[in-house]
Amino acid sequence: MSAEVVDTEAESVDVLVVGGGPVGIALALDLVRRGRRVRVLEAREDAPVGSRAIGIHPPGLAVLDRLGVATALVAAGRPVRVGRARGVRGALGAVRFDAPGSAWPFVLTVPQAITEATLREALATADPVALVAGVRAEGLHQAGEAVVVDGVAGDGARRRWRAAAVVGADGRDGAVRRALGVGRQGGPYPDRYAMADLADDPDRFAPDEAWVVLHADGVVEGFPLPGGVRRWVVRWRLGADGLRERTPEELAALVAAEAGRRLGAPLDAELRGSASAFGVERWSADRYAVGRVALVGDAAHVVSPIGGQGMNLGWLDAAAVADALDAGLDQGDPGPLLARAAGRRRRAARRAIARAAAHTALGRPVGPIGGALRDALLAAALRPPLAARTRGRFVMEGLS
Ligand SMILES: Cc1cc2nc3c(=O)[nH]c(=O)nc-3n(C[C@H](O)[C@H](O)[C@H](O)COP(=O)(O)OP(=O)(O)OC[C@H]3O[C@@H](n4cnc5c(N)ncnc54)[C@H](O)[C@@H]3O)c2cc1C
Fold it and tell me: pTM value?
C-alpha cells in the first residue's frame, strides 16, 4: 500500500468493485439499482474489443433481465435453438434449447465486446460516476469495519477508497485474491484450439443451429453469431504454439480448412471478426470470501471455455453476492452473509468445472473403436429419456 496517500482524502463508498469486466460491471449495476454507493476500478482506459465469450445461457439471461439489459442484448444477438452433433459415423442427433416452458428458450450468442458495452452503458445511465476507468487497484487491507483500497492511474496519480465491502472481479490473475493470500487449485489442460469468426453459409447451416463434429482426431464446433457470421472452433492437433505467430487471416484460412475437411466440404475463409489460438485451463480459489471481501467471476474460478459458461457462472456469482451485500450492509456486517454465499458459489463452480471438463474430454482424439463407442453414448444422451438431462447440462441448470 502507498504511503503517499493521505487517508482523510479517501472516498467512502458502500462497495468497491475491483475489475470492470462483464462480471464486475453487472455486480455494480445490480448494487447501484438497489441504491448503493458503488465504485468500480477498471485498469483499462477504453472499452474492450475482440471477442472471447459469445454464449449467454438462460440463467445468465435471467440475471441480465433483472438488471434491465436482457432485451437490448437479445435484440443485438442471435438465438440458438438447436445444437446438432455428428460423430465418426455420421449424424448423432440434436439437443433442443427451446423446451416448452423455458423462460428463455434459446442460448443467445453475442460477441463479448457488445455484451460489455451494453452493461457499461446501463451502468453509466444508472450512475455516471460509478466506473472509474484507467485506475489499477494495487493495495488492499481490512481495517475494522472498512476495507481500504489504493488505486494508481496511468499517469502515476494515487487515490484511495474506503469501502464497507470490496469485491474482486479482476479476472484470472486477480490482485484482490493475491492480496488476501488466497491460493487456488487446478491448472492447464493439454488441449489447444484455434478459432475464427467466418462468413456463414445459410444454405448449409441453419441460422439458429450450432454444430459439433466429433471426429477421430478431435472436434470442430460452429456457433452462429449475429450479422451472418459463424464462429468456428477447432481442436488443434499440432499444439497452439505453431499458431501463435499467425496473422488473423492466416488463422482464418487454417480454421476454414480444418472445419471444412471435417464437415466434408470447403468453408469460406472470409474473416468477419476475431481469430485466435488458445489453450484452456481450470482452477478454483481456495476461498471465495474473506471477511468483507468477496471474489466473483474469473477471479474466483476459471472453467474450460469448451461449453462456454465462465462469464455466465460469474453473473450467477454476482447475483448471489449482490443479495448478500445488500442484506449484510443493512445488518452492519456483510461478512457472515458473504461467507454463506461464497460457500454456495464454490460448490456451483465445482459442478461447472466438472461439466466443462467432460465437454473438453469429449473432443479429444479417439481411435476407431473409441469413436464408435463415443458415438453410441452420445446418440443415447440425445434421445429420451436422457435428452432432458443433456439439455440441462448445456443450459446451465443447477448452477444458480
Ligand atoms: C476463447 C474463450 C471463449 C469463451 N467463451 C465463453 C462463452 O461463450 N460463454 C461464457 O460464459 N464464457 C466464455 N468464456 C469465459 C469468459 O470470457 C470469462 O469467464 C469472462 O470474461 C470473465 O469475466 P470477468 O469479468 O470475471 O473477468 P475479465 O473479463 O477477465 O475482466 C476482469 C477485468 O478486471 C480488470 N482488472 C484486472 N486487474 C485489475 C486491477 N488490479 N485493478 C483494476 N482492474 C483490473 C481487467 O482489465 C478486466 O477488465 C470464454 C473464454 C475464452 C478464453
Answer: 0.95
